[in-house]
Amino acid sequence: MKLYYYRCSQPNFGDELNAWMWPRLLPDMFDDREDEIFLGIGSILFPSFPARSRKIVFGAGYGGYTAAPKLDANWTVYFVRGHHTARALGLPEAKAVGDAAILLRSCLGPAAANKRYQASFIPHWESARDGSWDAVCQVAGIHYIDPRRPVDDVLEQIRASEVVVAEAMHGAIVSDALRVPWVPARPVQGDHRMKWFDWASALEIDLRPHLLPASNLLEAALAAARGDAIRVRRVRRYGQGLRRVLPGYMIERAAARLAQLARAEPCLSSERAICSAHQKMLEHLDALRRDQALRRAA
């Protein structure tokens, strides 16, 4: 069975969790054969997978980046990320259990009591690439977590934080799973926003993301061009010099806002909701192991 996850030009914490977590939970389950495709963490429910391959959905979500896939007998859905995904795929609401990264609770113990960082900020990987968020965090006096760093590094920094301001959705999901309070920052790039509400719906979180300004003019121009692929390509090709326009003003403005968010009332799903989601996922893990053993024996 092939473990599928999105891999962009740079490593991204949320996607790379797949390679970190699943071999620990399902050892000896994966290989490179594409007759079975495992879809775990990420907005990766696309209509473009090979029609004859068996697609195993284990917590993945629909992100709206493409048309929704049409499920047939070659799709086996154990559970999906949230109610938005369930509705988009025509699934029963009971299939909306939560993001599979909640299973990190089975891989890691509780976060350390002694925290090294009073507040941390983890941007979306595109913001880390295009923005100036490391400089913003220096001005704001907030610890910067780069989502492009190795998974172990990011996990350790989240666990060492008293509160995490998260523009990266899996910064919030992992913080919540590991019981680290978090503050949702609405992604600067607008097409990454809907999927937050999908995950939150499964945990009964009343999600109210805070506005976050662009950290430089390049990031602002890219956000304004979203939805127009030609404009985005032009900005990327010709707009790198925008980083040098009004850098002090943009950084100071973003730092002031980020410092506000670090003092905002943080979020945390209820203990009942997170424990229930985790237990259901463990039950689905057992069912998957049994199903795969039966298929191999047949």
TrEMBL record:
Segments forming domain Polysaccharide pyruvyl transferase: 44-184
GO terms, molecular function: transferase activity
The organism's place on the tree of life at top rank: Bacteria
Pfam entry (one): PS_pyruv_trans
Keywords from the named record: Transferase
Record protein name field: Polysaccharide pyruvyl transferase family protein
Species in which this protein is naturally found: Caldimonas aquatica
